Amino acid sequence: MNWTELVGVHQSPRLFPPREETNGATFDFDEYSLEDNFTFADIAAELEDDGSRDKVFFIAPEKLPESDFQNLFEKLNQDQRDYIMHVADHFEKTPDKQLLHFLTGGAGVGKSLTITT
């Protein structure tokens, strides 16, 4: 049973020329063959550590003068101040432990100001 018999629709051969039956989908990749795409998409080779890379060191930013820090701190709301104090407390008490945080919020809520402070 074909599609038109199944749904009971009559298609004019002039508007809808008959399609050729195929066993499956055909794709014309031209110069973008699958083999080339897999070669370019394979990043495993780039991620492997062969020991030839230089070590990467984190260079800490310069410390803000106390007056600049106080000016920035005064612009923060209470939640932002609590967050800054939490981060500062972490680095004072456990400087060797890693601290991973994700700061999110809508536009204009002060994410950049909090990070800068």
Automatic annotation (TrEMBL):
Top-level lineage group: Eukaryota
Protein name, entry field: Methionyl-tRNA formyltransferase
